[in-house]
Amino acid sequence: MVRPADMSRRDARRVALAAQGFAEKRPSGRVDSRHFRRVLDRLATVQLDSVNVLARSHELVFFSRLGAYDRAALSRWLWASREVFEYWGHEASLHPATRHPLLRWRMAGDHQWGGIRSSARDNPDMVAAALAEITERGPVTISDLDVHRQAPRKAASWWGWGDGKRVVEHLFHRGEITAIRQNGFTRSYMLPERWLPADVLAQPTPAADDAQRELLLVAARAHGVGTARHLADYYRIKVPVASKLLAGLAADGALEPVRVEGWRQPAYLHPEARRPRRRLRARALLSPFDSLIWERDRTEQLFGFRYRIEIYVPRAQRVHGYYVLPFLLDEHLVARVDLKADRQAGVLRVRAAWGEPDAEAATPGGRERVTAELAAELAAMAAWLDLPGGVDVEPAGDLAPALARVLPARSEPLDV
After folding, report:
1. Is 314 exposed, middle or buried (0-12, 13-18, 19+ CB in 10 A)?
2. Is the pTM of this model over 0.85?
3. Angstrom distances, CA of residue 27 to CA of 66, 122, 143, 266, 281
4. What is the pLDDT of residues 142-162, one digit of tens each?
5. The three-state (H, E, C) secondary structure of 212-228, written as one string
6. Mean pLDDT of the chain
């Protein structure tokens, strides 16, 4: 057995940031489908989320790595190119279409939500009717499906879903139908052969262990370095299963075992991972659902940054705010801001801004630079979101006063 190599936390952090695309400069010219494709190829999966208080989460993921781009162009590529499909990966997620065979093991299993399982089990005629209607009419939204409109809603259920919606979600999970997003964020359902390339659908279905082994390698490449729990979380594979498969991959030389400073569990380094020797220069506001930070324990282990999303926390009990984005500067998460795009007023509102004292101390230039760089990134985001009123900072959080002083004097984003 190969003896694990030692890796400092600093080096692990650099590997992780490079793997997620933060060791490269943003494009200086027009951003197009080539850039979108490169981001998705690097990340492997991009989580979707319905919250739109700022922008859709997947749009923020691309912005953090590419800077300003045409959001309509991203939508066209995602929902017209047939290069991308939506399925349950790390929650509802975007995947390269070529990865469809590796997710069929999940399609063969039961949905994780008991309500969907029971609705499908108890209403086989409704399942058949939904599939027949989508076959005939797709692409079609849930609101336009007769099987949904005619089924009673369950007011006490999560989101008020009725059996009609639930059986459609069952079919989606089983891979018997797929969907694209239209008119903002609404799913339109259709048969897979109407969206996925024929050569992808014709590929044989791998055994579950083989598919999960390959997905763990994909996760390792997107992570750079991670423990079994970190890598398993990327595609929500059970940790005991992942641990066994990863040990085999390491024994075969497909992954390199490492010991990361301060981590209790053994870790795995992808052999193609970039290992930057110099300090990274990066700047980005991160979606709460960004793959760099979605495994919260790993975020704390890498950055010393404890992050919990507070969307579902009662307002009076929130610590940092409703939709809080961590701010990455160079190699550290140095601040967090609660943001809202006030489209009626044409303003990007900073509801609260908080600095991270330890990270600020580790940043050349300290709080002054953190404030200036954050102000520049906020201004760039406001312009990208077409908010002509710029940025308005509300007086909440220890960083808010300094941020409010800087913003009026700086309207142009800094080069990264």
Report:
1. exposed
2. yes
3. 6, 52, 40, 36, 15
4. 989 987 777 665 544 445 578
5. HHHHHHHHHHHHCEEEH
6. 91
